[in-house]
Amino acid sequence: MNKQRALIVLTLSLSIAIAGCSGAEKDATLGSAAQPTVVRTAVVKSSPLHTAYNLSGTLQAYEEHTLAFQNGGTVASAYLTVGTAVQKGGIIARLDDADYKLQVAQATASILEAQAGIDNAQANLQAAASAIQSADAGITGARANVNKVNKGARAQEKQQAQAAVDKAQSAYNKAKTDSERTQKLFEAGAATASDNENARLNATAAQKDLEQAKESLSLLLEGATAEDHQSAQASFQDALAGKSKAYAASEQAEASKKQASANYEKALVAKGQAELALSRTRLISPVNGVILGKSVNTGDLVASGQAIYRIGSIDRLKVLLPVPDSEIRDWKKGQAVNVVLYEESRQGTVSNIYPSTSTDTGRVNVEVVINNPQRDWLPGQVIKAAQQVTDKNGILVPAEAVINTGSKPFIFKDVKGKAVKTPVELGDQVVENQLQIVSGLREGERIVIKGSENLFDGNAIQSEEGGRP
Fold first, then answer.
1. Residue 439 to residue 395: CA distance in whole angstroms
2. In terms of residue numbers, what domain contains 119?
């Protein structure tokens, strides 16, 4: 195995040496050219050794969602295109919502109407309660009247009536005597006609008062008539009927209030449903991500559940690696996996090992999750991957960065915009066209990885980053 690696290193070094020799034959005065040479550089870093990139897979969004409207209708806006970044909770499409807004307005009007019905029924309840109180008072008065008619006059009332008769009799006797005396005086010419007339009128009035007092006393002594009993009883029955009517009105008002309350609750539910339907005219992103697919355009008529957008979260990506069944025992959840895309290497983590083997390929899918904070790796790209079989790390640089002209191999460092020739010692590891450097370089230094064949020590260089290490 060591001989094979040495042969690979020798072959790569010889190919580089040819380019290095041709560059060395150029006039050294070119090294002091005023214009800097454009080269590609990279920062030296430590990488796992003994890694074979023998697996490949297609990157997928870590989370992927197909979004659809829950209502059907005409698409009012769907302007976002594939590749557009979206935020969680952001509106990415809308339906024409005119009909749904009208439903909300109608439901609101129904709520107000039902509330007015409740208020009216409450007012009727209060009026019925007042009518019941009034009816109770009427019943009490009518019952008292009936009792009074049935019992007749009390002894005290009779005594008072008799006293009134006696008083009226005395007043009459006096008035009559005065009238007779004044008449004699008038006839004798000792009283005027006016005095005579006044005396006569007083006697007449006293006589009427006496008659009324006697009539009142007679009524008390005789008691109530049959008509009085009937009238009192009729008034009592009318009072009872009034109370029954007031209770009926109260019950009707209570029923109206219950119906109005039911209508109010029904209107609230209708409004809630209308508002929910209105909210469903907006298509909202459930995650932070990018649009991976678009199925409709503004103005299209869509059905409920019809796919509109496909959105993926790509802050993290995943890839399914088809691992041979004979090697699956070496893979564990949480294990580190090296993945490479266009010379850029990242570390992923095994998140799941599928429980079955494909009958067609004899391989088991291993799901690897890769952090992608810059979102510069995209779903659909094909990566190469390798399981890290040892924790030993070392410095690996692209083979074309190493120049060997027959003496000790060297590379060019980028030191403050100057190419600095630096001898290095090669190790025995070759990983993905990269050579192991065991001395001469340290992590964090910047080296030229492309364009070094045209450089001389001390040349001014203009760096553009890219690639490994």
1. 9
2. 115-260
